[in-house]
THUMP domain-containing protein (Triparma strigata), 364 residues
Amino acid sequence: MMFDPLTSRYLKLLQKGTLEELTPECLYALVYSSFDYEILKKKTKGTYKTFSITSTLLGLSSTPLSNSQITSRTIKDALVSSLFDTYGSRPDVEKKEPEVPFFVKIQGREVEVYVSLISKTSNHMLRSYRGPITHAGALRPTTASLLSYKSGVSKLAQAVRKGEVDGMKIVDPMCGSGTLLFESFYLVTGCSPYRIWLEEGGIPVWSRLGYGDLEECRKEVEKREEEGMAFLEQGKVTFVGNDKVGGNLKMVRESCEVLGLRGRHFNTHCNGVSEFTFDAGDGVAISLCNPPWPEGRIGGDDPDLEGTWEALGEWSKRNLKGQEMWVLAPPTELSGVLRMKAKRAMKFRQGKDELRWSQYLINK
Ligand SMILES: C[S@@+](CC[C@H](N)C(=O)[O-])C[C@H]1O[C@@H](n2cnc3c(N)ncnc32)[C@H](O)[C@@H]1O
């Protein structure tokens, strides 16, 4: 059993294999010939459960397997053909609510096939802290988790756990509904977002996969929860959210309530960024921020966009002396308005947008 902190999924390993070459043909051949998909079979002969395939590719850039969609399709084609050629009937793909959500990890030549044990659907973007109303410009939870992870939040939390760092504060001066902060909370504590669903009576997919799996997951969820919250109780990690819109902070506070987070772990402020003061204290502070974007993009309705970005740059220089700030930017001239040089920037795609997650080290 494996817990994937970025997608908050519990995964059970089904099969492992090694590719002879990093090509779609070799991947097809491996999946076609050597994987046993017993889990897909239904009791009635020749019928199958529906499935979906998500793939995670590591260390494959600039190889013919670098595109996760093409790779997932190759795996799906091989799996369907293998079952058809052996048993004469095909299983159906169901993206929204598959009975068996497969996750395939390919790292170099090693291929591992997992099944997700946790979710009503395989939709790993559902998070229990999200209320029925979400911020128009909210980040995808999995994107926010990745951004937080890439900025080193988990490593910092480890350093705090080991006593190498006094404490840490994670601050988002334009937090919206707080996605970056809540995903950081999950990374810092290792808590599972699905604990609430457990309290609501369990997850149907699990029972289909076997009661043993359900029990194992339940125990692990409880253990993580206990250890993660105990760590937070030590008061060494604080989350701070600010936004100029009160309605957004209401969403943040509602989410805090769902997660059982109290004021001393999670502070909210309602200010324009220029008026927002933040004290890093004696420990380390890290700011994660997804400022408004230009018109035409999600949440892009700021009449003085440049002014807002400029104010963010000034805020960081006043409040984050000697600390670091990470900013999510579309590839426009906007980040130049911050008047700071990024130490590094990670590029990634979300839908049609090419985005940059940039790190700024603020002078003392
Ligand atoms: C793209 S949204 C952030 C969304 C957030 N990451 C989420 O997932 O919900 C940008 C946020 O910046 C806030 N904002 C815009 N101008 C601001 C300012 N001058 N001071 C503080 N917050 C501001 C907006 O209210 C909005 O919530």
Q: What stands out?
A: Residues 135, 137-139, 174, 176-177, 179-180, 243-245, 248, 272-273, 290-292, 299, 302, 308, 311 surround S-adenosylmethionine (CB under 6 Å).
